[in-house]
What does this fold into?
Amino acid sequence: MNESPRVAGNIIRRMEMRFVNPILKSPYALILPALAICVCFSVIPALMAFRNSFFSVDYVAGVDRFAGMANYRSIFTDGAFIQVFRNTVVFTFFSAAFGIPLAVLTAVFLNSNSPLCNFTQGVVFTPHVISFVSVSTLWTFMMDPQFGILNYALGLLGIRPLMWLLGENTSLPSIIIVSVWKTLGYNVLIVVSALQTIPREVYESAMLDRSGPVRTFFHITLPMISPFFVFLITTCVAQTLNTFDLVRLMTGGGPKNSSNLMVYWIYETGYLHFQVGKAMAGAVIFLFFVGAVSLLNFALTSRRAYYQ
Amino acid sequence: MPGPHRIKNYGRHGRGDYRPAINSEKRIDAAESMISLKGLKKTYPNGFTAIDNLNLDIQDGSFTVLVGPSGCGKTTFLRMIAGCEECTEGEIFIRGRNITKKAPGDRGVAMVFQNYALYPHMTVEKNISFGLKNYGYGREEIRAILRDVLELVGLLDYAKSKPSSLSGGQRQRVALARAISKSPEVFLMDEPLSNLDARLRVQMRGELIRIHQKIGSTTIYITHDQVEAMTMGDCIAVMNEGAIMQCGSPDEVYNNPANIFTARFIGDPGMNIVAWRDGVSLGFRSSKALLQRPSQFAGLTLNAAVRTREHLGEVYRYTLATARGEEIEIRNDYLLETGRHLAIYIRGENLYAFGADSGRIPTAGLVDDAEI
It folds into this structure.
């Protein structure tokens, strides 16, 4: 009675063995779906960007002709590109240089299980789940030179008010502060989980070895969480190099490009000023820069990290 | 400042055949004992009392094994001596010195952990020298100590290896070397062999004893394995629910258990206990149960039914149920069918009696002809 489903099942199984299995034996067949998406949305656009960086492109006027190195020449003679590039390096460096040590300190505190932990955990992690739009709006209010709470606080300390996002010297540090604040929760999460991989007994051994808290931190804790730093620094640098939202929402790159970052500059040049070729030349240079930084980052950190 | 006891002092107690005379009847004076614990109590913030009013004296140079079931508070006890856990109440003395409030590093103790607790990012050498540096030893001294202790545990060739490249037994030997290097007055060992496989465990057992005999420091060794306790300790403290049930030589706790818990816990298998009358229970070792009534028998006759049989090779292991449903275990080379009813006989001199409070009471004249 129940023969027919079983027969059907057998046929499907035989077909599978005959036709599907040989295909699945090839590793390339297995990565094909992911590869297709990657080719469509990363490789082809990158190649197009590379091609366009040597062309003079104007979608409105319908111009698309070979321009040689003209785009590259123009961005290097244009002071803005150099400044934006420098801003990006400064922004990334300080975001990581403040963000990661701050995350480590916070995580060490959270790991100590003091009564304030739950509260701190909430405070630190909330920004990570808030959207960039809300974060930007909030900080724009707080950083308002006239009515913002930050200048009010400075006033209480007897410090002269700052221009924050509106000052040429303060706009970049301002978005660094917001970036550090926004990413702190995620970084802390990574470091806390790293700290929890250290067995309690190792700390007790250190106590029995007469190692004080500072020596224990530098000789036991830091080396033991070092593998996580590779990951943390790589993601942090990749993330901050690609920052777009903060600039778009808080400063628009201004004043006078003082807070403009690479990704926003590419967007601005390509889509607002319609200089597609120039934007793509910038993008290509940026691509090589990011690649070089990643390689360097990996080479430096993996050499020093201990893996169990 | 170098520590008070240099590594050169190895021979201080190095009497190879040293076995302290343990007599639980005699009250050991705190002044002559190495470690003295008075009224120790540990209550965790959640209200759980792990240890309650624990008093124990441990003699200089002894190898004391603290044995008890999981969760009986033995690890807490050891961590309190090490200073990793605060005492809620009570005091700890080492050589008459009150160390209750001292930092772990200033107590003159070293600890070997179950999971080795090595510093995984440091080489074997650095694992050992890290503490020595903190203790203030000079470079030359550290080099000499390193050579000494690595030779002692047989790991001279592995000085530059990372723990991850060593086997479990080797890692535990590194941990041991690290503990020895600081020439502590007291060694604390928290189930150091339980992460090793059976064969290695037996081998390390012997090695630990050899090292103990060589350096002679007082050792407190924790285990839940009563075989380990019996074979290694020259003094066994049986612990249950945060209290010491009995403390004495292996012979003493096996042949002269002070209460039902010790009787059941020590020995493989533990002692059989059956309820008798007026709250009194009778106990006997499996090996003392006879299947045939001897002539001139005075003792306990026990009627029971065979419930299960296991073949252990040399003998069979039987579980029997008495009429009241109490389970007892006997070992015998007779083949008995399961379900069979039979009587077993235990001579009076092989019987132990326990009172209603589960403490030991004399058997003399009590059980000349008892039957259950």
Remarks:
- Chain B touches chain A through 26 residues (CB under 8 Å).
- The first strand of chain B starts at residue 33 and ends at 43.
- Residues 269-371 of chain B form a domain with the OB fold (Dihydrolipoamide Acetyltransferase, E2P) fold (CATH 2.40.50.140).
